[in-house]
Amino acid sequence: MMQITDASTESKLTPLLRLAFRPFFLFGSLFSLAAIALWVGSLNGWFSFTPYGSSLWWHTHEMLFGFVCAIIAGFLLTAVQTWTGLRGLRGTPLLLLVLLWLAGRIALLLELGQLQWLAAVIDLLFLPCVALLMANYVVRVKQWRNLVFTPLLLGLTLANALMHSAVIGAFPAGMQLGSTIAVLLISLVIFVVGGRVIPFFTSRACGFDKPQPLVWLEAVGAISLLAVIITLLVSIGWQVPKELSIVLWATIAISQLLRMARWRPQATLSNPLLWSLHLSYLFIPIGALLALGFHLGWVYSMSPAIHALTVGGMGGLILAMLARVSLGHTGRPLKAHPQMSIAFAALLLAALIRSVLPALMPQWLVWGWSLSALGWIIGYGLFMLHYSKILSTPRADGRPG
User: Fold this and answer.
1) Whole-prediction pTM value?
2) What Cα–Cα distance (Å) separates residue 399 from each residue in 22, 201, 330, 384, 392?
3) Which of 42, 185, 376, 389 ranks highest by number of CB atoms within 10 Å?
4) Where is the chain membrane-spanning (predicted)?
């Protein structure tokens, strides 16, 4: 990583606040464990849970905007230092951003009655702050290529607002529409980031030249995802032809599979830090195929597709990225602890159980909830066990960061 600040300045900061990946990876992962435990416990009737909105609204919202968006913030606000050469967010400003994220999580755990609007406002502030920080870095060095993340973050803010509109009664359909748009926008973030880092990490570790992206294939992949988002917005007032949805989801699935094949996943089988990335990304085309199956009448609902994208594509890829990025940014060898292979496998199995299994055998849906939650808890529990110290202590090589 580029050395932008000196060691004496860095040593005055607590290690947890030296770069954004540290607190957001740590607390985001810990929060996901708590959120999954609360959700599965309430589903099974082990205890009563009545947060802001409802337990279903809270689960859907918090896994997307509480967990995933925290990791996105940590990754982007760390990567932008490397991209731009500017000193990354750290110290008190970073602490304030983390506290803003935490305030949103606390506010949405409460049933605030007529003060629900206050919880919504607190929660809605986080992503625009991240977007403005990203834009500030990019504009200062005129690195327009990376400005793409600012509209994506603002789009997620709109999706978040749609979800809140369902709670306050302004737009009852906002929960489903907002959450689905958020899933697709995050999938687009994965498309952009994954296309940069997965082939780069793979070629660097395996010793071959990084495959150059095909412009037409990248365009087809991005445009088809954007087109599905547009059809969702259009569906508020008009009926979208089923045939159009079929074409779009088929295009997403085929383009993503072609894209992945060029990254040479077969070369990664001996390296858990690599095969975990490739297998997790595979859930993007799997989700697209399940969505295609729904529109063709072969799958009972969009739920399996959504959970392929969320549990597998997001949860799996995030776990794989956290494991690799945390080692690289703390000056440690890029070699996963042996138990992380179990963590990756448990998370990928959780994704299969929550998406593909109920699509084939809907009668297993209820069992799938608890088994998938167990896989998530094993995966992220092992990550916390082996990475909590790494994220909260100085770099192993003594460099800043």
Assistant:
1) 0.94
2) 15, 22, 9, 23, 15
3) 376
4) 21-43, 63-80, 92-110, 116-139, 151-175, 181-202, 214-238, 244-261, 273-300, 306-327, 339-360, 366-385
Rg (CA), the chain: 20
Q: What is the pLDDT of residue 9?
A: 66
DSSP 327-351: HHTTT--S---HHHHHHHHHHHHHH
Q: What does the alpha-carbon distance between residue 329 and residue 396 come to, in Å, rounded to a whole number?
A: 10
Report residue 7's pLDDT band, with 50, 70 and 90 as the boundaries.
Answer: low
What was the pLDDT predicted at 127?
Answer: 98
Q: How far apart are CA 51 and CA 201, in angstroms?
A: 40
- What percent of the chain is helix, strand and coil (3-state, nearest 5)? 75, 0, 25
Round to the nearest angstrom and report the end-to-end CA distance of the chain: 9
3-state secondary structure 212-278: CCCHHHHHHHHHHHHHHHHHHHHCCCCCCCHHHHHHHHHHHHHHHHHHHHCCCHHHHCCCHHHHHHH
* Cα three-residue angle 124-71-376, rounded to 5 degrees: 110
- For tokens 């297998």, the residue is 279
State percent of the chain over pLDDT 90: 82
Q: Indicate the pLDDT class of residue 68, thresholds 50, 70 and 90.
A: very high
Integer Cα distance of 355 and 287 in angstroms: 8
CA distance 330 to 87: 16
Give the closest residue to 92 by CA, choosing from 5, 17, 9: 17
Give the model confidence (pLDDT) of 357-395 as tens digits: 887 887 777 788 899 999 999 999 999 999 999 999 999
- The answer to whether 213 touches 187, Cβ cutoff 8 Å, is no
Of the candidates 161, 196, 186, the one whose C-alpha atom is nearest the C-alpha of residue 72 is: 186
Q: Which two tokens stand for residue 295?
A: 């529109």
Q: What is the pLDDT of residues 156-171, one digit of tens each?
A: 999 999 999 999 888 8
Mean pLDDT, the chain, whole residue set: 93
Six-digit token string for 281: 């990304």
Per-residue tokens: 224: 């088809």
Question: Rounded to an integer, what distance in angstroms lies between the CA atom of residue 60 and that of residue 39?
Answer: 10
* pLDDT at residue 3, as a whole number: 47
**What local confidence, expressed as pLDDT, does residue 2 receive?**
44
Q: What is the 3-state secondary structure (H, E, C) of 297-324?
A: CCCCCCHHHHHHHHHHHHHHHHHHHHHH
